[in-house]
Amino acid sequence: MASVPSKLYADDVSLLVALVDVNPFFWTTASFSFSQFLSHVFAFLNSLLLLNQLNQVVVIATGYSSCDYIYDSSAATSQSVVDARMPALYSNLLQNLGEFLARDEKLGKEESRGKIASSLLSGSLSKALCYIQRLFRSGPHHPQPRILCLHGSPDGPEQYVAVMNAIFSAQRSMVPIDSCFVGAHNSAFLQQASYITGGVYVKPQHLDGLFQYLVTVFATDLHSRSFLQLPRPAGVDFRASCFCHKMTIDMGYICSVCLSIFCKHRKKCSTCGSVFGQAQSDDSTTSDRKRKAAET
Amino acid sequence: MNNGGKRRLRENGDRGDDDDDDMEEDGLEAWERTYADERSWEALQEDESGFLRPIDNKAVHHAQYRRRLQSLSATARIQKGLIRFLFVVVDLSKAAAEMDYRPSRMVMIAKQVEAFIREFFDQNPLSQIGLVTIKDGVAHSLTELGGSPESHIKALMGKLECSGDGSLQNALELVQGYLDQIPSYGHREVLILYSALSTCDPGDIMQTIQKCKKSKIRCSVIGLSAEMYICKHLCQETGGSYSIALDEAHLKDLILEHAPPPPAIAEFAVANLIKMGFPQRAAEGSISICSCHKEAKIGEGYICPRCKARVCELPTECRVCGLTLVSSPHLARSYHHLFPIAPFDEVPPSRQFEPHHRLQKTCFGCQQSLRNPSNKFSLYVECPKCKQPFCLDCDIYIHESLHNCPGCESFRPS
């Protein structure tokens, strides 16, 4: 386990790893256009770099079939391209993003009918955490890292275990995961991520003002957050869904061997194949212990 | 200059003996003290041509980690006991006051047990720990089996005094009495941290060991002095592990080895369906009396789905109806034990001239360059499934903390 190093840098320097969702299947059906979204996000990243000379920004694109680094403000090559029309940040980022989208499309597969396909959130979260670990290794003087997910695609249930692993690893390293969700319905994964790691989850109501939401909620460094009134999580749903019907349940049965969740009592676990025995004595043993505790 | 310094120190010595002790360590001057702890000349070794070079810590560290991973990967597909009921037995006999571990064995054991408790609940959120101490030849139960780390740590740090002899049999009898009452699906374990070199038992310890074996309790011992036959016998009979700590860092490693779930022996725990509840958070601003503290609290709690009593934290057992209450992240914490990732393959510099490897320049996870500063290839690893390259540090982080391969997660399976 990586122990968290003492934060010897100045309090207000931050490293932001932005995970930008570029899933084409989501953006073609969104009410907000992708180019408008990008202009809000770029303006936000630029203002973050302006807030403090030592701030760093890393952008990872979350695509449909792949994820990759798009921009790193601390890399030497990012300052080289100078264009008369746009600042160096924009042109470099746009160029890399264009190349990434072309590669992603080549790897593309058939879309699942009926629903919007999910993008690879677990992949970009894992890469972001590896980058942050590299930052921790660079010595006692480093900015405070955090992750911002600019996401809109729905959750892919096949990524549940991987996303939860990433969330727990972020919690141990004390890296908050913030989310700004621009899709239609709330994302349970991102809500849980922000709740467990101590980040902020925001689903903006008016996407025309996205830049305003980004700058007022996510631009401040971690130390200053204790002085601000940030949006509080409302109703994070921690209920589990059963493995047999995928319904959310309040009470269920857990296999003691593989921890699979079932909504109804059954004789055999469908995941690990263990046969259940002595199921009735389970409840009586618990109530015996309860009575014992009450007596003492 | 130095003499002036010493005189000044002696004058200030009246302020408190602590200051004096800190300033002068066995009469060492200030410049000598910087070398007292770090002997930088020991971190050198000779290379082939007889020149001195510093020991490459990173490669050694990685090699140690690889060895550990190889031994663990053999157990990757073996069923693990995920719901554990573990008793930690701390020996507070006279031998625990020895100063060979700084400041004393007892204090260091307490510190390591605290770190262990936190790590244990992090890796096994559905399990419970209880603490037992041995003092004056009698075993006392310090805390009962419970799932909240803070209460155990507070109780442990509260009373740290040692006296008398140690008694293994009394500890085992006490623990066995408690562990007989737990449900049958739980795995029963005992971890004994033994500093004494003897044990004063009222009866026949062999019979107690047989009783433990029949109750399917897995006993492990970590010794701090020397190897004892009775501890070795106990561990062999019950299927636990016996190890002796060489120094503080080794002790920490040995204790933390018991945090991840051990391989489960199928007959030891019956597979059962456990009824559990997934409570919702209470609404903001709702006022109710919480069942754990028996006082009125506002908002911020969880409501038991069966009896609607309010509890303060999860995971816990509802005090009113006895239902185990967990949230789905608690179950998800254990899923990485069920779906482990394969160890990565090493790619030594000799193999890096192959066409596939020549193009790999940066680590897939952290974008660090995989080449040496002199632009020569250095050792890196690659995932056997997705063939992406990773640097050695990412390898350790991925396998020890993250449990996801970024390469496999970043490509959609066909």
TrEMBL record, chain A:
Recorded GO CC terms: transcription factor TFIIH core complex; transcription factor TFIIH holo complex
Record localization: Nucleus
The keyword Transcription is assigned to this record: yes
Record's subunit section: Component of the 7-subunit TFIIH core complex composed of XPB, XPD, TFB1/GTF2H1, GTF2H2/P44, TFB4/GTF2H3, TFB2/GTF2H4 and TFB5/GTF2H5, which is active in NER. The core complex associates with the 3-subunit CDK-activating kinase (CAK) module composed of CYCH1/cyclin H1, CDKD and MAT1/At4g30820 to form the 10-subunit holoenzyme (holo-TFIIH) active in transcription.
Domain of life, per lineage: Eukaryota
Principal location: nucleus
Region (Disordered): 277-296
Keywords for the protein's UniProt record, in alphabetical order: DNA damage, DNA repair, Metal-binding, Nucleus, Transcription, Transcription regulation, Zinc, Zinc-finger
InterPro entries, per database record: TFIIH_Tfb4/GTF2H3 (IPR004600), vWFA_dom_sf (IPR036465)
Name of the featured protein: General transcription and DNA repair factor IIH subunit TFB4
One Gene Ontology molecular-function label: zinc ion binding
GO biological process, one term: nucleotide-excision repair
Annotated family: Belongs to the TFB4 family.
Chain's role: Component of the general transcription and DNA repair factor IIH (TFIIH) core complex, which is involved in general and transcription-coupled nucleotide excision repair (NER) of damaged DNA and, when complexed to CAK, in RNA transcription by RNA polymerase II. In NER, TFIIH acts by opening DNA around the lesion to allow the excision of the damaged oligonucleotide and its replacement by a new DNA fragment. In transcription, TFIIH has an essential role in transcription initiation.
From TrEMBL, chain B:
Biological process terms in GO annotation: DNA-templated transcription; nucleotide-excision repair; regulation of transcription by RNA polymerase II
Positions with biased composition (Acidic residues): 16-28
C4-type Zn finger ranges: 304-321
GO-annotated molecular function: zinc ion binding
Keywords attached to this entry: DNA damage, DNA repair, Metal-binding, Nucleus, Transcription, Transcription regulation, Zinc, Zinc-finger
PROSITE patterns found in the cross-reference section: ZINC_FINGER_C2H2_1
Domain C2H2-type: 383-403
One term under GO cellular component: transcription factor TFIIH holo complex
Location of this chain's protein in the cell: Nucleus
Pfam families: C1_4, Ssl1
Primary residence: nucleus
Annotated region (Disordered), positions in chain: 1-28
Family classification: Belongs to the GTF2H2 family.
PANTHER family noted in UniProt: GENERAL TRANSCRIPTION FACTOR IIH SUBUNIT 2, GENERAL TRANSCRIPTION FACTOR IIH SUBUNIT 2-RELATED
Name of the protein: General transcription factor IIH subunit
Species assigned in the record: Rhizophora mucronata (Asiatic mangrove)
